[in-house]
Write a structure and sequence with these properties.
This protein is an alpha/beta fold and 240 residues long. It has eleven helices and five strands; from the N terminus they run E-H-E-H-E-H-H-E-H-H-E-H-H-H-H-H. Helix 7 packs antiparallel against helix 8 and helix 9 runs antiparallel to helix 10. It is globular, with a radius of gyration of 18 Å. The two termini are 33 Å apart.
Length: 240
C-alpha cells in the first residue's frame, strides 16, 4: 500500500488555504468511487484513547472514512503509537489528513526531533501540502542544499514549491535528475552509487516516456534515496 495516496500532510498559517487543500483532497478521494465520504475531525489535544481507537478501527460497509487530525503535532504518544501499529488496517479502510497551522519548517523540525515511528518515519515521507504564505519562491539551489543535507521533507517541500511556480512543470524533471546524479556521482561510495543510480535511471526513463506525473516520480525517487528503509541513507552526500 502506498501511504502517499491515502495519508496527507497539510501545514501552514493560512486557514482558508488549509480548508481549500482539504476540500481538494476530498474531491480526489471521491473521484471514481462509489459511496459517501464520512468525515471525522479529531482534535489532537482532546483525545479519549479508547474511543479514538474504536473509531479508527470501525469499518463502514458503504461510506468512505476520512479522519482529519487537527494540530496533529499535539497527538499524545499513545495515540501516535496506536496509529503507527495499526496504520495498514486504518488506511485499508479509509484516509487520513494530518493538519497543522504551523509553518512547514517548524513542522519539519518537530518531525525530525521525534522518536516515535509515526512522526519520524511515516509522516516524514509524506509530501507536505503548503497552506501559508512563503516569504519567497524557492529555487533549484534550495533543492540542492536540502538534498546535500539528506533532508527528505525539505526536498519534498522545495519540489512542491517549484512545481507550483511554473505552468511548464515538466521542465523540472530533467533539471532535478541532473542535480541528483551530480551529487551522487561526487559523493557516493562505489557499491551504493550503483544502487542509487539505478533508482535515478528508472525515474529518468519514466519521465522521458511521458504520460506519468513527473512530480510523483520525483517524490518516489527522493523517498527511495533518503528514507531510512532504503540504501541511499548511508551515502555520504556532498556537504556532509
Amino acid at each position: 500500500m502506498n501511504i502517499k495516496t491515502r495519508a496527507f500532510l497539510i501545514c501552514g498559517n493560512d486557514f482558508y488555504a488549509r480548508k481549500r487543500a482539504i476540500e481538494n483532497i476530498k474531491t480526489r478521494i471521491l473521484k471514481g468511487k462509489a459511496g459517501l465520504l464520512n468525515t471525522s475531525v479529531v482534535f489532537s489535544k482532546e483525545i479519549e484513547l479508547k474511543e479514538f481507537q474504536e473509531n479508527l478501527l470501525t469499518r463502514s460497509l458503504h461510506d468512505i472514512q476520512l479522519f482529519i487530525f487537527k494540530d496533529f503535532l499535539e497527538l499524545p504518544l499513545l495515540a501516535r503509537n496506536f496509529l503507527s501499529e495499526n496504520i495498514k488496517k486504518i488506511l485499508a479502510a479509509g484516509f487520513l489528513i494530518f493538519e497543522s497551522e504551523k509553518d512547514y519548517y517548524f513542522v519539519a523540525k518537530e518531525l525530525a526531533r521525534a522518536k516515535d515511528r509515526l512522526f519520524s518515519v511515516l509522516l516524514k515521507g509524506l509530501p507536505p501540502v503548503r497552506a501559508g504564505f512563503s516569504k519567497r519562491d524557492l529555487s533549484i539551489y534550495d533543492f540542492i542544499k536540502s538534498f546535500e543535507r539528506k533532508d527528505l521533507q525539505g526536498c519534498l517541500y522545495v519540489l512542491e514549491n517549484l512545481y507550483a511556480q511554473s505552468p511548464k512543470q515538466n521542465q523540472f524533471g530533467p533539471q532535478l535528475i541532473g542535480v541528483i546524479v551530480n551529487n551522487i556521482s561526487k559523493s557516493a561510495k562505489s557499491k551504493q552509487k550503483q544502487v542509487c543510480l539505478s533508482y535515478v535511471w528508472d525515474a529518468d526513463r519514466s519521465i522521458k516516456e511521458g504520460g506519468k506525473d513527473s512530480r510523483l516520480i520525483l517524490q518516489t525517487l527522493l523517498v527511495k534515496l533518503l528514507r531510512p528503509e532504503y540504501a541511499g541513507l548511508k551515502i555520504g552526500f556532498a556537504g556532509k
